[in-house]
């Protein structure tokens, strides 16, 4: 059973609405809905609260949850692409700074050489 299915079953077994469970965990009904639709997953603190509330160990609560599935849904391709774009922009800025630095160093080297040889 997936985490979202397990959460729905546990919530309904206790006779709770999404609003009521959200109030117990200090999250919104929308957050509970996203967990139940597998659009997001609770953080560790909320998992502990859920396990305590339902009288389960963390292992029982998350058993059979595909960790790779959680990772894929929490880190979307857009976020990964954005990270790579930022890294590439940073590399370009560093390259530009190095080229400008070498240019300035070369310019001052010529000034020093000119001063030494053409006094």
UniProtKB/TrEMBL annotation:
Keyword Transmembrane included in the entry's annotation: yes
Which protein is depicted?
Transcriptional regulator, contains XRE-family HTH domain
Keywords per UniProt:
DNA-binding, Membrane, Transmembrane, Transmembrane helix
Q: Which InterPro entries match?
A: Cro/C1-type_HTH, Lambda_DNA-bd_dom_sf
Q: Which GO terms describe its molecular function?
A: DNA binding
Per the UniProt record, which residue ranges are transmembrane?
97-117
Give the HTH cro/C1-type domain ranges.
7-61
Q: Which organism is it from?
A: Anaerorhabdus furcosa
